[in-house]
Write a structure and sequence with these properties.
alpha+beta; Alpha-Beta Plaits; five-stranded antiparallel β-sheet; 4 helices; 8 strands; 34% strand
């Protein structure tokens, strides 16, 4: 059953008025593959570009995007997040790994906020690095974990 479709087939926002307020968290991950000519600009844990520090800018962009998710995704509830944290690292395959964790105490979850935050951080890295190379691949964005709703979820990498 699709939760955003009425019996008539029309789209609808999910009614959360009867749900309990609980602490809810969600973590999403985006992975970005950068070519060596971009990774050579890694200094003190951040990529440096003509536009400035890449990872620091991506963190700010991701948080801003997560806060605006209800304006970007049709039928998504507008939420005032309690917290949004973005961590960026380089894995053993020399890929940039972006983890966005959103937290709220509310009647609805924050999976979309975490997914949007991770996605926009990845897009910001692309934008800030494209002058160095267009051979940048945003490989995937996926939900890693969620808690506090009907069902918890945890992905095993």
């Amino acid at each position: 059953m699709l939760t955003h479709i009425k019996d008539t087939g029309d789209p609808a926002m999910v009614d959360v008025s009867e749900k309990l307020v609980t602490r809810r968290t969600a973590t999403a991950r985006s992975t970005v593959s950068l070519p060596l000519e971009v990774l050579e600009h890694l200094v003190d844990g951040d990529l440096q570009s003509k536009k400035g520090p890449v990872f620091q800018t991506a963190i700010i962009a991701g948080i801003m995007a997560a806060k605006k998710t209800g304006e970007l995704i049709p039928l998504c509830h507008p939420l005032g997040l309690d917290n949004c944290d973005i961590q960026i690292s380089i894995n053993k395959q020399n890929e940039v790994v972006i983890d966005c964790t959103a937290t709220i105490t509310a009647k609805t979850g924050v999976e979309m906020e975490a997914l949007v935050g991770a996605s926009l951080a990845a897009l910001t890295i692309y934008d800030m690095c494209k002058a160095m190379s267009h051979d940048i691949i945003i490989k995937e964005t996926k939900l890693m974990a969620k808690t506090g709703g009907k069902r918890d979820f945890r992905r095993n990498e």
